[in-house]
Design goal:
- By secondary structure, the chain is of the alpha+beta class.
- The chain contains 17 helices and 26 strands.
């Protein structure tokens, strides 16, 4: 017999009754029934109930074991009595009578329990992550993650892609976030960087003639943490293709992600039609470039109904350039209680409030109610109602100013309204491509032009587009949104050196700076670079959605905490004096 097990803790069934078996695993739960000990023995695969009484030579030793001790048992498979069968377990028809026991690893008093659903502080969970990972939900999440990655790989190979690895130690390259720098021992005073993404390398792979590349790529960014973003590292399905247009990239990644979500989505609906929404329209309709389309609410501009109206706040606001009023329809939200609650939400978000109108039945017909309705009068109120397609029992909320100042709050309000009114469809994955991103933005104070989005994307219209107003230039850049999260980002790349120089020139970067920062890419484009494009899909966020988790740390094996600390490994840590001396570094104390 094998030294540790003849079967896993999920393998035994009624067909094994009478056999002598060996199992190894962790003590999940101990139950003492007055001279008979029952233990749920757990391994990665499942749970088997084992039992022992005073007739067994192992009884005295088994009495000593506690939760999370790692043990090996030898015993005989017995059938459970019919009324004791547990249909929830694959091993629920049997139990194993223990005849011999070996303790493989005793456990100290536990800082957190593996059995049960107790909640523990994140600090405790991360410090003792190896215990936290033993819990069933975490075992399932990590297994799901592994299976998702394997499925992605298969689907990419099936489409003719090959996987190539790009360097982990490279040169620093500004790509929108802070680099993690690595000091060089052989070149004192110089630093490598961990790659924020394989962006330049995968483009160079295309210039090298490989045509279709993908990689399950680790990326490193020194970022502020969020619930859906790791502060240090993450993984993405990275791909690039030659001789393609934007739609070709869409047609490549859509079946991969559709298949993954259908395979692992637990029966939830997966949208087959992925609309393409311009960045401008996404901001207008949803207040976000990663909209949750499960929520049917679309915001609309209603400025004309407030110009010269009796509501002085909005009327005066509209006299300023670049301002507008937007309405958030709220079907079935037509009660003063709900409207007051949403007004309080806006105040918590830092706004003075949020105007509203709601429509009610007064017996003799429909009436518009609320402070705004009184100020602008029935004619304007009715025009708003008709534009928004609302009726009795519905409401609308209003925000005004320069769109960039209130869009984020408007988007949040839309989400809250959809949730609270039950409008957001659950058990569904709703996808949308966000396209036509502006490449440039203008600083309101200085008037300077700089990049708003990916500087490496090909401008729509090429060189000709760069001859006009930079703020009108749109790039062949795209994101994929799903249920309020950005899952994919990509672009058709700018592969022509003269267009690259012009694009950076408009943002105030001279030729020397472009050559200095992106020399390898710039030089490569002088040697027959093909048109190419691609994208990257965030694996952590995809698994987070599939696992129905709200925090990305629930689907990462060993994540950092909110302060970018590894409490288990005590990182970041202080270097030794010898290490600093070898690298030619000195720590300057912070005040």
């Amino acid at each position: 017999m094998h030294a540790y097990r003849s079967h896993t803790c999920a393998a035994l069934t009624a067909a094994n009754v009478g056999e002598t078996v060996r199992l190894s695993g962790w003590v999940h739960r101990v139950r003492d029934h007055g001279g008979v000990l029952f233990i749920d023995l757990r391994d990665h695969f499942g749970v088997t109930q084992v039992l022992c009484d005073g007739d067994s030579a192992a009884f005295a030793e088994l009495e000593k074991v506690r939760s999370e001790w790692c043990i090996r048992i030898d015993g005989t498979v017995k059938a459970r009595d019919a009324d004791l069968v547990n249909p929830k377990l694959p091993t629920g028809e049997i139990e194993v009578y223990v005849r011999e026991l070996e303790v493989l690893g005793a456990a100290d008093e536990l800082p957190l329990m593996v059995f049960g659903d107790q909640e523990y502080p994140e600090e405790t969970r991360l410090r003792y992550r190896y215990l936290d990972l033993r819990r069933d939900a975490m075992q399932q999440n990590m297994t799901l993650r592994s299976d998702v990655v394997a499925s992605m790989r298969r689907r990419m190979w099936d489409q003719g892609f090959r996987e190539y690895q790009t360097p982990i130690i490279t040169a620093s390259s500004p790509e929108g976030a802070r680099d993690f720098l690595v000091p060089s021992r052989l070149h004192p005073g110089k630093f490598y960087a961990l790659p924020q993404a394989p962006q330049q390398f995968k483009q160079l792979i295309m210039v090298s003639g490989f045509d279709k590349y993908f990689q399950i790529a680790p990326c490193f960014r020194d970022e502020d943490p969020r619930a859906d973003r790791s502060p240090t590292d993450f993984y993405q399905l990275d791909l690039e293709m030659s001789f393609v247009e934007q739609q070709d990239v869409f047609d490549t990644i859509q079946p991969v992600l559709t298949g993954v979500f259908e395979e692992f989505g637990g029966g939830r609906k997966v949208d087959q039609e992925w609309p393409q929404i311009s960045y401008k329209d996404a901001a207008l309709w949803y207040g976000s470039d990663k909209p949750d389309l499960r929520n049917p609410i679309k915001m609309q501009v209603v400025s004309d109904h407030f110009r010269g109206s009796g509501f002085a706040i909005f009327a005066k606001l509209l006299e300023q350039d670049g301002t507008e009023i937007r309405a958030i329809p709220a079907p079935s939200g037509g009660s003063r209680k709900f409207c007051d609650r949403m007004n309080a939400f806006a105040q918590k978000e830092g706004l003075p409030g949020m105007g509203y109108i709601f429509w009610r039945d007064q017996g003799e017909g429909m009436e518009a109610a609320g402070p705004l309705a009184k100020n602008i009068g029935p004619e304007r109120t009715e025009a708003i109602r008709q534009q928004l397609g609302l009726g009795v029992g519905d409401a609308a909320f209003f925000l005004g100013g320069k769109p960039k100042a209130f869009e984020k709050v408007a988007g949040k309000a839309r989400d809250v309204i959809g949730e609270e009114l039950g409008l957001t469809e659950k058990d569904r994955f709703a996808f949308a491509w966000i396209v036509d991103f502006p490449i440039y933005e203008q600083d309101e104070e200085t008037g300077a032009i700089d990049f708003e989005h990916n500087p490496f994307s090909m401008p729509q219209g090429g060189m000709e587009a760069l001859q006009g107003n930079p703020l009108d230039v749109r790039g062949f850049q795209y994101d994929l949104a799903c249920n309020g999260y950005e899952l994919v980002s990509g672009a058709i790349r700018n592969h022509k050196p003269e267009i690259m120089l012009k694009a950076f020139e408009l943002a105030g970067y001279g030729e020397d700076e472009v050559k200095s920062r992106f020399g390898a890419l710039f030089n490569a484009f002088h040697y027959g670079a093909p048109p190419h494009g691609g994208c990257a899909a965030g694996i952590d966020r995809i698994v987070m959605l599939l696992a129905d988790e709200a925090n990305i740390r629930e689907v990462m094996m060993f994540p950092m905490n909110q302060r970018a600390e590894d409490l288990m490994m005590d990182a970041p840590s202080d270097p030794t004096s010898d290490q600093l001396m070898e690298l030619g570094l000195r720590i300057i104390p912070q005040d």
